[in-house]
Design a protein that fits this description.
heterodimer; A: Rossmann fold; 2 domains; seven-stranded mixed sheet; five-stranded parallel sheet; B: mainly alpha; two-stranded antiparallel ribbon; 73% helix
Chain lengths: 370, 300
């Protein structure tokens, strides 16, 4: 008696579990990965919003290949270990392509898994050169590279600011240290040797000790390779210690939150980023739609994720296939007209033209430096 | 530079000490490592921001008013004490007779619950803390002590002195010491042990709440995850000083802060946590019960 009762429960459980596993044959799945929660959650939200709008537009037109499109979310919390778990989850779910990840330290390990699973990955935010330098056919990015960005920052420090005492800090991540090293390389070409170079720990809250040590070298400029949460603390604590050092950083700091939270301490900081999106005429339709739907302006990476999603879906539609290598081939040889203007990818998967410019924080806003 | 690093280290250390006190008091009495204690500190920081928001909407605040700050800290203390006592009541008291592992797991559960609750209720993004201290400070031999650093150190010292007086000069303090020595014996001589334990959680949580508001202001940035790292650091401080020992927690906190600041300033900021934990390991090798801990011979 007892046994038959148990068997019934077990069979029931198997049936129920099995039901959950039946794939919806009708939907095409896209993976969207990034730091959706956690201290970099603001960036995750931008990536999310861009993807949502792209997919909604396509679904309104009837989806792709006559099938609806569904987004599978992957929250990597800017942790490489989580990123690998997310990548494996995406493969199990059978996604046709991935938009993400954001942090280079996540994109790089995840790209290997997508490569093995023959899935195309387009990142809207990872700028570390290593991502595309390893000869993986499936990796693309809609943003530029740190070796381009570092040169712009170094040039600006040497020629525009005309400063030669530069201190360099980074957050020890693939992105942060990579960007810092590229800038140091470019600075050394301009005969500037950093007076101080050190890494800090992401997630710490007190950087006064390292800033105090740095202050002894009386640098005129502090270049920071990292993302905005630490940049906010560095900027505030530097001013609190009475340092007048100019703060210069990269695209990871080009965030509204940086100015909102660092307040007046952020004034006069310089950040390298791509040119003003308000001036790209192809982007205006999207920017307006975003404002209507979410009630706020686009963030730094919103357009990049929107473009990445559109390229993926366009490629699926054009090749009438969800086969990774076919999609990659098509993406590589097509001249894309996107919300960021015309885009073309090189052999490695980098965009051919990607200008970085310098922005200044002025009166609580990022202003492009002429 | 040395003076500046000492100031940085002492400020950080006094915060660690405040949180470590909560760990050590609870451990001293019920031998539970209360992993949810870091989360209480995080709740304190959030309560500070919420109070500030309330005061602002009621137009009861001016940006640099000391009263605003005082109200924020008092609210955080009240809220955190209430949380601490409730947590003890719901998550630990029912497990009083169980094996030592059960309340520990319960504590981890409370910690995860609180983190996620705050993430959902307050959002996953960083929140900026209001600037209640302008950038002024005192310049001293080429170093700068900011107003907030002075405030943090002074408040911490005040809190610790008050705690010492409470433990050694009051009736409830006497009851706490008795319960820490032998819970069963204490209850036999008529001490309401449950009440003493509640009081312990109340005091520890109030200290963590104050620490939360002060640190929020010091760093200007909080999120739902700050309790985790602060909790680990404070726990380390408590172990370093000898867990269960109140002066030990204070000493451990200050030492940990100093080691981190000096390590980051003079050797390498990349390895500052390595120094802190290396020193912990060395201390534990030579003094397994911590710097001020007594060698307690376990009852057989």
């Amino acid at each position: 008696m007892r046994r038959s009762w148990m068997w019934r429960v077990i069979t029931g459980a198997i049936v129920v579990l099995g039901l959950g596993d039946v794939p919806e044959a009708s939907a095409i799945k896209l993976g969207m990965a990034g730091p959706l929660t956690g201290d970099q959650g603001a960036i995750g939200q931008q990536l999310k919003n861009g993807t949502i709008i792209a997919v909604e537009e396509w679904n309104a037109k009837g989806g792709v290949l006559g099938r609806k499109i569904e987004i599978v979310w992957g929250d990597d919390q800017h942790d490489p270990k989580q990123a690998v778990a997310v990548a494996n989850k995406f493969l199990n779910e059978g996604v046709s392509g991935v938009i993400g990840h954001f942090n280079s330290s996540c994109s790089i390990p995840a790209s290997t898994i997508y490569h093995e699973g023959k899935v195309v990955q387009i990142t809207p935010g990872s700028t570390n050169p290593q991502l595309t330098e390893r000869g993986l056919w499936n990796v693309f990015r809609t943003i530029g590279r740190d070796d381009q960005q570092g040169v712009v920052a170094a040039d600006f420090i040497a020629k525009k600011l005309k400063k030669s005492k530069v201190a360099v800090l980074h957050d020890k991540t693939t992105y942060g240290q990579g960007l810092a090293d590229e800038s140091v390389k470019a600075l050394e070409k301009a005969k500037i040797k950093p007076v101080y170079y050190a890494g800090i720990t992401q997630g710490d809250k007190d950087y006064r000790p390292v800033l105090t040590a740095l202050k002894q070298k009386s640098p005129e400029v502090l270049f920071y390779g990292g993302i905005y949460p630490e940049a906010i603390l560095l900027t505030k604590q530097m001013r609190e210690l009475g340092m007048k050092t100019v703060f210069v950083s990269g695209d990871g700091v080009w965030q509204k939150e940086y100015i909102d939270i660092a307040g007046k301490d952020a004034e006069g900081a310089y950040v390298t980023f791509t040119p003003d999106q308000a001036k790209i005429k192809e982007a205006q339709g999207f920017i307006k739609k975003h404002k209507e739907k979410f009630g706020e302006d686009v963030g730094a990476y919103t357009v990049y994720s929107y473009v990445a999603a559109n390229i993926l879906l366009d490629a699926i539609a054009a090749t009438k296939s969800t086969d990774g290598p076919k999609l990659a081939d098509h993406i590589r040889k097509t001249k894309w007209n996107t919300a960021l203007g015309p885009i073309q990818f090189d052999k490695k998967g980098d965009v051919l033209v990607s200008p970085f410019v310098v922005w200044e924080v002025k009166d609580g806003k990022f202003v492009e430096v002429k | 530079m040395l003076l500046q690093q000492l100031i940085n280290g002492l400020t950080l250390g006094s915060v660690y000490a405040l949180i470590a006190l909560g760990y050590t008091m609870v451990y001293g009495i019920i031998e539970l490592i209360n992993f949810a204690h870091g989360e209480i500190y995080m709740l304190g920081a959030y309560m500070g921001i919420i109070t500030f928001g309330l005061l602002t909407t009621l137009h009861l605040t001016s940006p640099t008013s000391g009263a605003t700050l005082l109200i924020m800290m008092v609210m955080a203390m009240l809220f955190c004490s209430a949380c601490g006592v409730t947590i003890e009541r719901l998550a630990y008291r029912p497990l009083r007779g169980a094996s030592r592992l059960s309340p520990l797991i319960s504590a981890l559960g409370v910690s995860i619950f609180l983190q996620n609750f705050v993430m959902l209720a307050q959002g996953p993004r960083d929140r900026g803390f209001p600037h209640l201290f302008a950038g002024e400070g005192i310049d001293l031999f080429g170093s700068r002590i900011s107003a907030i650093q002075i405030f943090i150190m002074a408040t911490s010292v005040l809190m610790m002195v008050a705690l010492q007086l409470l433990v050694h000069r009051t009736k409830i303090g006497k009851a706490m010491r008795a319960t820490a020595q032998d819970m069963q014996m204490a209850s036999l001589v008529g001490i309401d042990v449950d009440r003493v334990i509640s009081a312990t959680f109340l005091i520890g949580s109030a200290l963590a709440g104050v620490a939360g508001v002060m640190v929020g202001m010091y760093y200007g940035l909080i999120n739902f995850f700050i309790g985790y790292i602060a909790g680990i650091k404070a726990f380390t401080a408590a172990v370093l000083g000898g867990i269960g020992n109140i002066p030990g927690a204070m000493l451990g906190g200050l030492l940990l802060g100093l080691i981190e600041a000096l390590g980051a300033g003079y050797i390498s900021s990349e390895y500052k946590d390595v120094f802190a934990f290396a020193i912990l390991v060395v201390v534990l090798i030579f003094r397994p019960s911590g710097l001020l801990g007594k060698d307690i011979s376990r009852r057989v």
